Amino acid sequence: MTRFIFVVGGVISGVGKGITTASIGKIIKDYGFNTTLIKIDPYLNYDAGTLRPTEHGEVWVTEDGGEIDQDLGTYERFTNEDIPKQNNITSGQVYKTVIDKERAGEYLGKTVQFIPHIPDEIIRRIKLASAGYEVAIIEIGGTVGDYENAPFLFAAKALEQEFGADMVAYVLITYLPVPYHITEMKTKPTQQALRLLRQEGIIPNFVVCRTAHPLDDERKSKIELYAHIDRNYIIAAPDVKSIYEVPLNFIRDDFGKKILDYFGLTPRRDLEWSSWQQQVETLLHPKVSISIGIVGKYVDSGAYELFDSYVSIEHALLHAAALQGYGCKITWLDAKKFEANAQAVEECAHFDGILVPGGFGSQGVEGKINAIEYVRTAKIPYLGICYGMQLAIVEYARNVLGLSGAHTTEVDALTPYPVIDLLPMQQKYIHEHNLGGTMRLGGYSAYIKPHTKVSALYEGRQQVVERHRHRYEVNPEYVEQLEQSGLIFSGYHQRTDGTRLMEYIELANHPFFVGTQAHPEFKSRFGFANPIFAGFVQAGLERHCYLKSSLQSEWLPIDSCGKISLS
Ligand code: GLN
Question: 168 and 156 in contact (C-beta within 8 Å)?
Answer without folding.
Answer: yes
